[in-house]
Amino acid sequence: MRFQKSTHAVYRLQYHVVWTPRYRREIFVEGVKQYLEKVLQHIDMLDDDIEVQQVNVQIDHVHLVMVIPPRIAIAEVVQFMKSRTGNVKYTFKMCVVRK
Predict the structure, then answer these.
(1) pTM
(2) Interval 62-91: pLDDT, tens
(3) Contacts 24+ apart (CB under 8 A), 81-84
(4) Which of 12, 38, 79, 92 is the most buried (most CB within 10 A)?
(5) pLDDT digits over 13-67, tens only?
(6) Whether domain 4-86 has CATH 3.30.70.1290
(7) How far apart are CA 22 and CA 39, in angstroms?
(8) Contact, 36 vs 20, CB < 8 A?
């Protein structure tokens, strides 16, 4: 376990984010899965201190393990993540499931 240091703190904040689509629909098929894995690996574009340790895309949910410094709110990172992946339903027409 590696601790990180800033001017006034020593920290190791590790977040496990689980992200599911509405009604837990099985929409993350192979093409969408590869796209999400590629996009979610680059969440660290928001800040140099963000470290994406693990991305696991299942057919009905996504797991992310990230290290985020205390000066950045987790809500800000999730907002950035959702803004980068929000175009999935327009990119892949097959993920739109209508009942």
Answers:
(1) 0.78
(2) 999 999 999 999 999 999 988 888 877 777
(3) 81/17, 81/19, 81/40, 81/43, 84/39, 84/40, 84/42, 84/43
(4) 92
(5) 999 999 898 888 888 888 888 988 888 888 888 898 899 999 999 999 999 999 9
(6) yes
(7) 20
(8) no
Alpha-carbon distance of 35 to 38, in angstroms, equals 5
Going from N- to C-terminal start, the domains of the chain cover 4-86
Q: What Å distances lie between residue 27 and 6, 31, 32, 61, CA to CA?
A: 40, 10, 8, 9
C-beta separation of 34 from 79 below 8 A: no
Residue 94 has which token pair?
A: 């097959």
